[in-house]
Amino acid sequence: MKKNKLHNFIVWERPCYPGLIHMAAESLVLPQKKEWGRPWAKSYGFWSRGMVRFAWPKKEFLANAVYIAKKSLNDAYFNRKLKIYYKLNAVLKK
């Protein structure tokens, strides 16, 4: 990733072990893609000296975020999610 192109990306950076971040990333991206039909954006991951850095193309990331937010605010979608929530809560209360 060239320094002069960095402004085109959303960058997330934290100290971490690569195995831990890989599991967390996979457990987030796959269900999200299944639920909404698209992930946040194509992800680029780098690990160096105990730091993990992920970058997403800003334009694609923001377009997908707007799509997901609009879909989440749809009443039918929201009510369907509430039904699932109440069903799962009932199981937990037993």
Description:
The protein has one domain. The protein is an alpha+beta fold. 56% of the residues lie in helices and 20% in strands. It starts with 8 loop residues before the first strand and ends with a helix. A 3-stranded antiparallel β-sheet has the order 1-3-2. It has 3 helices and 3 strands, in the order βαββαα. It has helices spanning 18-36, 58-72, 75-93, and strands spanning 9-15, 44-48, 51-57. The protein is flat and about 50 Å long.
Which structural traits does this protein have?
3-stranded antiparallel β-sheet; 94 residues; alpha+beta; 56% helix; 3 helices; single chain
What's the order of the H and E elements?
A: EHEEHH
Treating each run of at least 4 consecutive H or I residues as one helix, how many helices? 3
Number of strands: 3
> Helix- and strand-based class?
alpha+beta
